Amino acid sequence: MIESVLVANRGEIARRVIRTAKRLGVRAIAVYSEADAGLPFVTEADEAVCIGPANPAESYRNVDAVLAAAKQTNAAAIHPGYGFLSENADFARAVVDNGIAWIGPDPEAITAMGDKINARNLMAAAGVPVAPGTVDPVATVEEALAAAEGVGFPIMVKAAAGGGGMGMAVAADAAALATEFEKVRGFAARMFGDGAVLLERYFPRVRHIEVQILGLADGRVVALGERECSVQRRNQKVAEESPSPAVDADLRSRLCAAAVRAGEAVNYRNAGTVECLLDPGTGEFFFLEMNTRLQVEHPITELTYGVDLVEEQFRVAAGLAPGFDPAALAPTGHAIELRVNAEDPKRFLPGPGAVRTWVEPTGEGVRVDSGYAADTTVTPFYDSLMAKLVVHGADRAEAIARARAAVSAFTIEGPKNNLPFFAELLDNEEFVSGDYDTGIIGRMR
């Protein structure tokens, strides 16, 4: 097993990785910005190094600062968490070039899947279903209008280098496409340094389903079931569950087989997620993108499959066999994750602030992965995620009941939070029925 790991992240995911590292006897090293000095992950690490000011570009996204901290502390490995540098192929390559183990996929796999156009084409060649769309980047409005004739309206305009729901817009007709194309291209150039745009058929009613894969040290790729991620605001997830209430055994088999093919196409190692769109009317699914890292919502897979995915990441990076039997994988019960954000529960606008009270729910089947505590501060410099409230039950009805009780018992005073929204969601007839899609929040508002 790896002797030490530097966690190149912050908040709840840094605590999450540190927790498993300590259980495995791995020395855990935290890096933190000046704004995060008082957060729990800093004190819980065996060692901590300040790497810069609040601005992520000068701290958590500063490759030189992170590598310097790794060398200073003699870190044997780096775990990037999610966000920040986790899908930066140049960073992964620099880690390896400096003789440090990278707890993630090879840089080549990150590069291959980081460009949505290239990823689409790779998946199509591997026999993974893809939605109708463009094969090459669309450079001008004229090209976009011509391509739309073949793809059809409504159409999704997407930044090729985008992610996390950013750099996307829907056009219902040619006039809207001309406007949205320029907006997305400009946004992509500013945010990602790459203005390449692709077009895909937009499905007005769709479910967002993803499959957790793990590329093992021996070269095999295995799938650990699916997660339902259709509760979204602004194309960004706020609640997930596993298994999906829309997926039966046959569809699960097809989804997992496609996800394994996707991983095999890029010789994938370590944890990754293949995201798909599911047409609930036809049962057809299409490849959306592949996230070459650990997902925010990984805990629901851990609870339903009984596998510590962070431990498995360590094992793969160390060249060890998995800590579970891939041939015996099967889900047990049902899990739901609620992303507790520092945001207004009606308009979902950020609401950072000092945390005066923080009381987490407890009880059977309840897990809280949190980044904050009482007397800490949620600053405006980073993502608004404060904690992940995760519940597990024998079936979906029990999981929903436990989630309701846990939401009621979770007390946060200071920053705004979206717990009232989750109380509403868990009583919503559409959600409770399991027959919902990505438009559910819009219909609740």
From TrEMBL:
Residues 1-445 form the Biotin carboxylation domain. Residues 120-318 form the ATP-grasp domain. It comes from Pilimelia terevasa. This is Biotin carboxylase. Keywords: ATP-binding, Biotin, Ligase, Nucleotide-binding. SMART domains: Biotin_carb_C (SM00878). GO terms for molecular function: ATP binding; ligase activity; metal ion binding. InterPro entries: ATP-grasp, BC-like_N, Biotin_carboxylase_complex, Biotin_carboxylation_dom, Biotin_COase_C, CPAse_ATP-bd, PreATP-grasp_dom_sf, Rudment_hybrid_motif. PANTHER family: CARBOXYLASE:PYRUVATE/ACETYL-COA/PROPIONYL-COA CARBOXYLASE, UREA AMIDOLYASE. The keyword ATP-binding applies.
